[in-house]
Amino acid sequence: MDEAALVMAARDGDQRAFADLVNAHRNQIWAVCLQICGNQHDAEDALQATLLAAWRNLDKFRGEARFSTWMHRIAANNALALIRKRKANTTLTDFSDPEAPVTLDADDSAPRFDEQIALRDALRDALQQLSDDIREAVVLREFGDFSYADIAEHQGVGVQTVKSRLNRGRTQLAQYLRVNTTVEP
């Protein structure tokens, strides 16, 4: 069954068709939630809210954009709403020394896997330092494989604004990683 037929079946209440639609895009939807939220627990909450919202609002999907674009928009909006809510309701205390850089074990026998994990964690921390609009653009482009035009439509801005946000985001990420890690971005 093609995507349009699956959407029609899901609108008629076919949960299997909806599951097929979601399964085709689940990895990208999860990546968007995880990268925007910054942790698995919040990403799971955002993903659950996304799936529920998509199911409840299938009748509002007009088909002007691809189904995946529509789902990514819902995921990004839910993830951003969740972190805004958490920020408003939570006071975070950082007990670490802000002057101490993150370092990896310099032992040459350390597996490359450790460096990958350290870089992933540092990147997640760096993403949290970006403003919401820049983080969303970076996540949609780098983890959601969105085109500039799709991101522009999603954010309600022009393509040049998206390119500017991506440029600023990449610059800020690289700067954060250079200052806060020993891993090269």
TrEMBL record:
Keywords: DNA-binding, Sigma factor, Transcription, Transcription regulation. Pfam families: Sigma70_r2, Sigma70_r4_2. SUPFAM superfamilies: Sigma2 domain of RNA polymerase sigma factors, Sigma3 and sigma4 domains of RNA polymerase sigma factors. Residues 121-173 form the RNA polymerase sigma factor 70 region 4 type domain. The keyword Transcription regulation applies. Residues 21-87 form the RNA polymerase sigma-70 region domain. It comes from the Bacteria. One of its GO terms (biological process) is DNA-templated transcription initiation. InterPro entries: RNA_pol_sigma-70-like, RNA_pol_sigma-70_dom, RNA_pol_sigma70_r2, RNA_pol_sigma70_r4_t2, RNA_pol_sigma_r2, RNA_pol_sigma_r3/r4-like, WH-like_DNA-bd_sf. Transmembrane segments: none annotated. The keyword Transcription regulation applies. Belongs to the sigma-70 factor family. ECF subfamily. This is Putative RNA polymerase ECF-type sigma factor. It comes from Gordonia sputi NBRC 100414.
